[in-house]
Every structure is written in C-alpha cells, then in structure tokens.
Predict the structure of Indolethylamine N-methyltransferase.
Amino acid sequence: MEGKVYIGGEEYEKEFTPKDYLTTYYSFHSGPAAEREIVKFSLQNLHQTFSTGGVGGDVLIDIGCGPTIYQLLSACEVFREIIATDYTPQNLQELQKWLKKDPGAYDWSPIVQHVCELEGDSMCILGTELSCQGLAVISLAQDTKLRRVSKPVGAAGGRVTLAVTVSRWQEKEAKLRRTITRVLKCDVTKTPPLGSAQVPPADCVLTFLAMECACPDVDTYRAALRRLAGLLKPGGHLVTLVTLGFQHYMVGPKKFTGVYLEKETVEKAIQDAGCQVLRCSCVSLSYSEAYCVNDGLCFVVARKGPGT
Ligand SMILES: C[S@@+](CC[C@H](N)C(=O)[O-])C[C@H]1O[C@@H](n2cnc3c(N)ncnc32)[C@H](O)[C@@H]1O
C-alpha cells in the first residue's frame, strides 16, 4: 500500500523481500557509490577488528544477520563457530541458499574478493620450470585466481623464481560456509532473544544495521542491547554498526522505519548494558537519499565487564 511505513518484527515477515534488499544495498560494483562506500567502511572496520584488534574465540553470534554474509567474512578466520540469527524467515532462507550453494543464491563474490584483498591475498614464491619457449609454467589450484606476477626474482639452471599473488576468495567462501554452524530465529524485543534455542555463552555478539530497525524507540533499543550483552561471556566483545540519525529505508517499494539514534545514545546504551566501549568510529557517510534517510554511521567495539 502506497505511503505505508513498516516497522520491525512481524511486518518484516510480511513485507521484507531479501532480494530487493540485497540488490539495493550490496550491488558492490554496479550499484551507487554511496552504498559501496558504506560496505567498504564496514569491511575495513571488520578486517581491523578481527585481525589486529584482538577479537576472536570460540563462538560468535550474529544478531539480525538478514540475508547477508559480508559482516562475517573477516570473523570466520578467528572464530571456531558462527551462529547466524534473524527475525525474518525469508532472510534465513536466503542465507541458507548461499550456505547450500543453491543456484539462485546471491552472488557475494565481488565483496568476498574485496575482503581477500584487504587481507593481502597470499604472496608466494614459486620455483617454476621454463618451457622450451623460455616461458615460465605456473600451475594454480582450482580455487585460486591469479592477481599479479612479479618480474623474476631469480633464475638458475632452467628454473625461474617468481613472486605471485593469488586470490583465494573461493577458499574464503568455503571457510565461512564451514564456520556458520547454525541459523536461528531471533527476536531482540523478547527475553530470551533466541527463544528456546540453547546456545553457549558467546565470545562475540555482532549486530550490523539491525537494532535501529528492530526497535521503534530508544527504550526498546536499550532493552535489546541488554539482551545482547546477556548472550556474551564476561570479557566477550560486542561489535556493532549503527545507522545514526536513521529515519527510514526502502526495500524495493516498501518503506521501513525504526529508531532515530545519536552517537551518545548508542554509547550510553552499550555502557548501561554492562559493556565498556573500546572503540567508536563515527563517519558522516550516508546512503543514497532515494534508499535511506540517515545522518552518518557508527562502528563500535565494546567489551562486557567481568562481573556483569
Ligand atoms: C537493515 S536489515 C540488516 C541486515 C544485515 N545485518 C545487514 O548488515 O545488512 C535489518 C534486519 O533486522 C531484522 N529484524 C527486524 N526486527 C527484528 C527483531 N525484532 N529481532 C531481530 N531482528 C530483527 C530484519 O529481519 C532485518 O534482517
């Protein structure tokens, strides 16, 4: 219905179309620059957090994962198990399609390749035979893509040594598929948020762009963050990306709203949930106006206190 605005929970089940959401916000190469820059900001922060940032462990729970996997590409290198959760059944089905390599699954490969580049791909030195025409022969494993070959760094006795950079994006996809062990329903407005599902205390709870959509007001947002902190081990990390000044966003022709948040409200809610903010990076990036009205983004890493 024209002009209708939807809000978290049940309306997502009726109105949210995963493919519309994915093509609008995650068409990495072919979509608008604003959406691409936001994805790059997310991937850069996630890469930093899960490589040099010291966040890792046994279990990561992604809350409000939607139909997306980009937010888990760096984490899958440093967690034994990832539990992906969302409110909306069709989002969980879309995620399952990707996990099962269904032919209709969304193609995440441009984003996976970008993460592999952030991680430096892999540089290897190959000793290769020279062919009778004097060309170096390089054999690559089936799941690697050649990115760069340097000038020879050495040559002796019919063999030449080359520095080669290969992209291992398919290996990365396989690793993420292995690491996501469970896909569960969640509702952050309910206690417990994962219903009757038994999950171990998490080393990390990650939630990207979901709480501001799931919660209609600040009190609900604050209560939801307390529930998320309740899923963490003492000393575990909360990693979140929040749309600041959020008013609404479009999923195909449907308009969804949520809670308008400022940086201070986010930080205070995290602290009052028993977590210490370790890092808070806010940027003035906004989505294309036709898709989403917001005023910047905030990436936060926080740690749950020992006695909470
Ligand atoms: C904007 S999407 C974010 C999806 C994904 N995390 C991303 O980064 O693109 C918002 C998500 O919040 C979820 N959501 C809505 N209400 C919720 C609730 N009560 N509990 C948990 N998730 C909810 C929706 O199903 C949707 O997947």
Q: What stands out?
A: The chain has two domains: 5-101+109-119+172-304, 123-169. Residues 267 and 277 are 7 Å apart (CA to CA). Residues 5-101+109-119+172-304 form a domain with the Rossmann fold fold (CATH 3.40.50.150). The pocket of S-adenosylmethionine is lined by residues 8-9, 12, 16, 64-66, 68, 71, 86-88, 91, 186-189, 208-210, 213-214 (CB under 6 Å).
